[in-house]
Amino acid sequence: MAQAKRPVSPHLQVYRWSVTMASSILHRATGVALGAGTLLLAWWLLAAATSDEAYALVQLCMGSVLGQVVMLGFVWALTYHLFNGLRHLVWDMGYGFELKTAQISGWVALVGSGAVTLVLAFVCGGAS
Amino acid sequence: MSLRTPISKVRGQGSAGSGTHHFWMQRVTAVALIPLVIWFLYALLSHMGGSRDEVIAWVSQPIVAVAFVLLLGAGLYHLKLGLQVVIEDYVHGEGMKLVSQLAVTLVTAAVGVASVFAVLKIAL
């Protein structure tokens, strides 16, 4: 069909990256990733409710290098989605739409979530 | 000239028949999740590495169990609403759209019921 060959918008690959664009894409990406994270949370709760063997398997997986990386990613995704979600709620109330303001709040969400994740990882790593 | 009937204007439900319900519930669950996620981040890092006995003792506290049920309820509802929009945006075939929307609804509901049941089994 001729329609299939027609150029379609948006062409993400031709745009220069901006912080507003990156923060928007990351909000959706972290949201989907948190869906997978929720499955892990459910697995952990069900294992704790089921048996020592089931819980030991969760601990083995979470304690591995890959498991630790996944946990770090989960914490960052949750923190970023929280920061950027607050940004969305402020927009919903009609504030923060000036380009400069939106760029600054985007950087705050990105850098803030990264910093909080590092602090939490450090505190947790120090405690365990 | 508008072709909309007076009753449809009054109801304000739009072409999808549900008005701003999706938008509004996404915001309601988002607001609920602000304190719950802050608590969860603290909880995650202070208890998740613990032994099974420690975790059971912790989740058995009524306030912790209630917080988990609220987090899972609001979180999975919020997830369902978000994934629904992602599918609306990216999945175009009518058949695939129907199948994926159904899958999201059923899987989030199943995960919600299973994880809440796990919390209650531990706590009660």
Could you explain the architecture of this structure?
Chain A is an all-alpha fold and 128 residues long. Chain A has one domain (20-127): 3 helical TM bundles of succinate and fumarate reductases, CATH 1.20.1300. Helix content of chain A is 79%, strand content 0%. In chain A, 27% of the residues are buried. Chain B has five helices and no strands. Chain B has helices spanning 6-11, 21-47, 52-59, 62-90, 94-123. Chain B is elongated and about 65 Å long. Chain A binds chain B through residues 28, 31-32, 34-35, 38-39, 41-42, 44-46, 48-50, 52, 55-56, 59, 62-63, 71, 75, 78-79, 82, 85-86, 88-89, 92, 120, 123-124, 127-128, and chain B through 27, 30-31, 33-34, 37-38, 40-41, 44-46, 48-49, 52, 55-56, 59, 68, 72, 75-76, 79, 82-83, 86, 111, 114-115, 117-119, 121-122.
Describe the secondary-structure layout.
The complex is a heterodimer of chains A (128) and B (124).
Chain A: H1 19-50, H2 52-63, H3 65-92, H4 99-127
Chain B: H1 6-11, H2 21-47, H3 52-59, H4 62-90, H5 94-123
> Largest interface here, residues on each chain?
A-B, 36 and 34 residues
What's the architecture of chain A, going by CATH?
Up-down Bundle
Order of helices and strands of chain A: HHHH
What is the correct CATH architecture of chain B?
Answer: Up-down Bundle
